[in-house]
Amino acid sequence: MEEVLQFLFSQKQSKRYILVHCTHGHNRTGYMIVHYLMRTLSISVTQAIKLFADVRPPGIYKPDYIDALYNFYHERKPEMVVCPPTPEWKRPSDLDLNGDVVPDDDDDGGSAAPLLENHGTETLMSNDDVLGDSIPFNQQDTLRQFCYQALKLGAGVRGNSQFPGSHPVSLNRDNLQLLRQRYYYATWKADGTRYMMLITMDGCFLIDRNFNFRRVQMRFPCKSTNDALAEKTHHYTLLDGEMVIDTLPDSQKQERRYLIYDMMAINQVSIVERPFYERWKMLEKEVIDPRNYERQHVYQSRNPYYRYDLEPFRVRRKDFWLLSTVTKLLKEFIPKLSHEADGLIFQGWDDPYVPRTHEGLLKWKYANMNSVDFLFEVAHSTS
After folding, report:
1. DSSP-assigned beta bridge partners for residue 85
2. Domain total for the chain?
3. In a domain, 140, yes or no
4. pLDDT tens digits along 98-114
5. Which residue among 4, 17, 213, 214 is least enclosed by CB atoms within 10 Å?
6. In this protein, which residues make up the domain named Tyrosine specific protein phosphatases (predicted)?
């Protein structure tokens, strides 16, 4: 699948036609074309399969390919979807020299591509787990360029390869005065894994500290203009947050949760220059609320068969409080968290989003969790 995407992406600016074929142009061909339709149009798997079948009847006729598509895009296969019968010209009439049926050569001897995401595992989760699927390098370069543009950064000496996310600095005697001079919010410092996330029609991409992108299957509908459900999904919305592993107190079951604490672009429009309190409110209204509303009314949505429960993690907006509540935050809120925390973050309420090191974004860690970064070099004496 990745090789096909790599090819398609390299031909994106070309005006030439692309021909897709396998032995007979139905199962493997349909499987790839449906993937393409799902990543370029805001439609369901059922609609994409029908689009292909209408122009290339009978369409995909092997059940494992159809099932794999529904599983990959987290959709429940409707009862009305029936796999078409094997075409007359494909029914086994040829026998080999031993009198056995000649094998079907419309596939490569195996089933459709397996899922790379494992949703039913009971293995212990850790912050070192690799999430999502790798993407073509040229697609990653294009997405990196968008991130730099959204954050209003130049390419720099290292090009677009350096992670551009905002980093806090440690609270010390010199910057402690900022908390007295400016208006700050406080939140807990989660002990998780830092990711930015880019939402597109092609899927969602987790962006790690090495500025590498991996695709995860998630759904983020846009805010509707009325009380109806949204008809569009976010396209090039850039978020910042942290992945944590919650341990549910009753069952001790683990759940991944992405805590979103900032938004830098919405549907291709950069908002990094807006004050933090505006971006934080927009995050709730434009991203979290529409998603939660559709989850609660999914059977009335444009895609009533989508299964949010199969997504690799949950999402929520991270809470911030007035600076005067820090004592309560430390003594009452943090001890009740279902994931680890190692301190506090202090965010200026009217700060723009500052890429890389942000001298006004402050972090405080518990004394027993403080660490020292250092670099040492081993030299061998020649004497």
Report:
1. none
2. 2
3. yes
4. 555 455 555 444 555 55
5. 17
6. 1-67
